[in-house]
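SAMPLE LOG
Freezer: B-3
Tube label: C17
Construct: single chain, 429 aa
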Amino acid sequence: MHQQFGLIALFTLLPLSNAIAGEGIDSGNTAWMIVATALVMIMTPAGLALFYGGMSRYKNLLNTFAMTIVSYCLASVIWMLWGYTLAFGPDKGGILGGFDHLFMSGIGVESISGTIPTFVFALFQMTFAGITVALVLGSVVDRMKFSSWIVFTILWITFVYSPIAHWVWGGGWMAKMGALDFAGGTVVHINAGVAGLVLALVVGKRIGYGKEAMFPSSIALTAVGASMLWFGWFGFNAGSQLAADGVAGSAFLVTNTSAATGALAWMFTEWILNKKPTVLGIASGVVAGLVAITPAAGFVNLQASLIIGFVAGILGFFSVARLKHKMGYDDSLDVFGVHGMCGMWGALATGLFANPNIIQTGKGLFYGNPKQLWIQAVSIVATAAFTLVGTLIVVVVTRWVTGGLRVEKDDEIRGLDGSVHGERGFEIA
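STRUCTURE (predicted):
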């Protein structure tokens, strides 16, 4: 009897506790966003490090881990010092946020963004900055200087990522235009994909590329990494609603469905054309499906997610297996093919399939709003153009500061685990 009264009292007081938690703060939403932030956090130093590390050669496994982890560490500091205010500070002409929140100035425990504490919102957004720059790394593993990567990361988050984040999510010109990007199709994936392509072209091909086999160090690590990315992506997409509600649940559902469909589409395409369904192909298809659904996650229904994932799996396969070789560039881990190309498809698909029955402001071509497809196309072109030019400038400055982007020839041949870190990821008999 006492236990029953205790439970009744608890559930009676829960709404009151939400109200007392702060002016406008919802404890349920806050709890969910803390979990979502942790899910996105684990995507970079764990999921992406394993995914990329397994695809790199055995002699560069630890270097890939180190550069991925240090990306997240740098983003964690940069974002809180000046990145957050550049992206989410008071709008300045639709281009950049103001400097009101340098070093998180003016933000305290009582500060609120929507129904969650601003500290939680800032941390959630920081995890996006961290994984975006880390994604770029995949284009130049095996050959970029560690010191150059550190300088590049600092400059790129500041001058490329933060402005685009403001355009789309911080009240900038793309947001005012009506561009739809629920969780990062333009801000994260097109941005990272184009930057990766630029960096790969400037740094140049790996020694022996196209002439000798470059086997991944461990497809098993890559498969585990892909699974961790898939898991963390639920926080990435569903968390972008910033609330524990039906839209977050819908985003969760379509994210999983698109990932699975992307994996199957890539697998069967590869199986038909190359006669073997590889584990690397399945893992890559998962990521392709996740990338494509990211901008659409909160705007589309289950049926649309099936189409988005299916197209992404096929598009990703041909971008990696055909387009890259036809164009002749060395994007080590296919950042442009998977993130750039599938991110563009996802952004366009949002303009096609955005369903006003999920979010009223999201209305695509198939629901009577052809203008949305045009807006999405403009956002893709503008993001790609800005990223291309901005990354080139960052590369030039990085090269000047560090005396070059690429490791010495002997170090590249020996492997960066030993030459840079003095360690070995594997014991080779």
